[in-house]
């Protein structure tokens, strides 16, 4: 990987749909040459995929939270993780250090939905919820 690859990656991080021709102008390569480099970065596993950024307000999402769930018994950790990761509201679920715990990032249309969610996951452990006030 060289400086040109790094510049290409940085441009794609800002806009994954950036035209190869526009990237090429910035790095002084043709569009096909940029495409070839991107393909190589994908094949090497450096670029693993592309993501979508959504306007959550327009989707009705008003409440975003982090929940640290202290699992009741370590034998239920895997079960809890496998159930929670597949819930619609869950954006991310990570096993974190300390006692058996999961950290969950979840989005809701309102506080009522959050309460329902907390009640649902409480079967697995004790939740500690932090509402996100601002994010970048």
UniProtKB/TrEMBL annotation:
Task: List, alphabetically, the GO terms of the cellular component aspect.
Answer: cytosol
**SMART domains this protein is in?**
HTH_ASNC (SM00344)
Q: Per the record's keyword annotation, is NADP included, yes or no?
A: no
In this protein, which residues make up the domain named HTH asnC-type?
Answer: 1-62
**Which GO terms of type biological process are on file?**
regulation of DNA-templated transcription; response to amino acid
SUPFAM superfamilies reported in the protein's UniProt record: Dimeric alpha+beta barrel, Winged helix' DNA-binding domain
Which named protein is this? Lrp/AsnC family transcriptional regulator
């Amino acid at each position: 990987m060289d400086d040109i690859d790094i510049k290409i990656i940085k441009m794609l991080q800002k806009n994954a749909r950036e035209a190869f021709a526009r990237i090429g102008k910035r790095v002084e390569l043709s569009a096909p040459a940029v495409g070839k480099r991107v393909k190589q970065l994908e094949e090497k596993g450096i670029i693993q995929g592309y993501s979508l950024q959504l306007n959550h307000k327009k989707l009705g999402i008003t409440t975003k939270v982090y929940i640290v769930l202290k699992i009741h018994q370590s034998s239920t950790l895997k079960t809890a993780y496998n159930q929670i990761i597949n819930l619609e509201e869950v954006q991310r679920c990570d096993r974190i250090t300390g006692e058996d715990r999961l950290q969950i990032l979840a989005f809701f249309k309102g506080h009522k939905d959050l309460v329902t969610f907390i009640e649902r996951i409480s079967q697995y452990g004790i939740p500690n919820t932090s509402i996100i006030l601002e994010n970048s």
